[in-house]
Design goal:
The protein is globular. The protein has a single domain, classed as ABC transporter involved in vitamin B12 uptake, BtuC, CATH 1.10.3470. Helix 3 (59-83) packs antiparallel against helix 4, helix 10 (221-231) packs across helix 11 and helix 10 packs parallel to helix 13. With 306 residues, it is mostly helical. 73% of the residues lie in helices and 0% in strands.
């Protein structure tokens, strides 16, 4: 039971940063913006969150700093792609490279310094129930926030007028503009939201997942989050399910190494990324599913004619 509890807890912990990053990217892509800079935004959010938490002594300050750092990085991308109409793919890749380099520069002074972890919730009696109690009533606050955020985003996109406007901008930018909606404004706000989510996902890594700062600690999670959006067919609830699946694979390969499974450790380490590639290949074969949910104007630049 203790082993099962430990495995389930680590799966949830591994899935949480993926949920944050993927939900933010989903909103951005629903508005028609393809931001490949998730990895860079997560890296900067991780180092800024760690630095702020250590300097202030409060993990909440670290979370806020991670959100702010992610939004600043996202605003750079938004200005370049939405105002100056630069290529979104090239700009996103540049943002990732810039974020990884900047995080290494900022974090150089914090390498080897013990982190300030975020405390977990404890509800008397409920949290003491074997397996279920710790899993449901004993997580850290950010894990609950990830679940709530997923539900709120799903409600916003499909049950509110604002969500309808955002989806219309991503599906038909010309018609949305003709109806009087500010396409650039909606997309700018969507990109900022995506940056905030990526920032908090990065802060989760340095404050909860492993309370310390190490260079490249995002370890490709930003790219997995991008694949997760496609895996979820741009539907928020499926993001939550997919994050648990991908998080479970990344954690199970660690447990397999601990149990001395006779498989090369290098192969086990690449399992999450190999799974990502296989899933994308399988999904790409279902053209009907992609055609139904893919934002029609994803990645397309927009210049108002008046």
């Amino acid at each position: 039971m203790d082993m099962l509890e430990g495995i389930l807890l680590t799966i949830v912990t591994a899935a949480t940063p993926l949920v944050f990053a993927a939900i933010g990217e989903l909103v951005s892509e629903r508005a028609g913006v393809l931001n490949l800079g998730v990895e860079g935004m997560m890296a900067v959010g991780a180092v800024c969150g760690f630095a702020a938490a250590n300097l202030s002594g409060e993990p909440v300050v670290g979370v806020l700093a991670g959100i702010l750092a992610g939004m600043v990085m996202a605003s750079l991308f938004a200005v370049v792609t939405l105002i100056f109409v630069a290529n979104q793919v090239a700009s996103g890749l540049a943002l990732t490279l810039f974020g990884l380099g900047l995080s290494a520069l900022i974090g150089d002074a914090f390498v080897g310094i013990p982190g300030i972890g975020m405390p977990h919730v404890h509800i008397p009696v409920l949290s003491d129930i074997p397996v279920v109690g710790v899993l449901i009533f004993g997580e850290d606050p950010l894990t609950y926030l990830a679940v709530i955020l997923t539900i709120v985003v799903a409600w916003f996109l499909f049950r509110t007028r604002g969500g309808l406007i955002l989806r219309s901008v991503g599906d038909n930018q010309v018609s949305a503009h003709a109806l009087g909606y500010g396409v650039v404004k909606v997309r700018f706000l969507a990109v900022l939201f995506g940056g905030a989510c990526a920032g908090i996902g990065g802060a989760y890594l340095s404050l909860v997942y492993t309370p310390q700062w190490t260079q490249n600690m995002t370890a490709g999670r930003g790219w997995i989050a991008l694949a997760l959006v496609v895996f979820a067919s741009w539907l928020p609830v499926r993001v939550l399910i997919g994050a648990v699946l991908f998080g479970g694979i990344s954690i199970l390969q660690l447990h397999a190494q601990g149990f001395n499974v006779p498989i090369p450790s290098q192969f086990l380490s690449m399992l999450p990324y190999l799974t990502t590639i296989i899933v994308l290949v399988l999904i790409s074969r279902n053209r009907t599913l992609l055609r139904v949910n893919t934002p029609a104007c994803l990645g397309q630049p927009f210049v108002p004619d008046r």
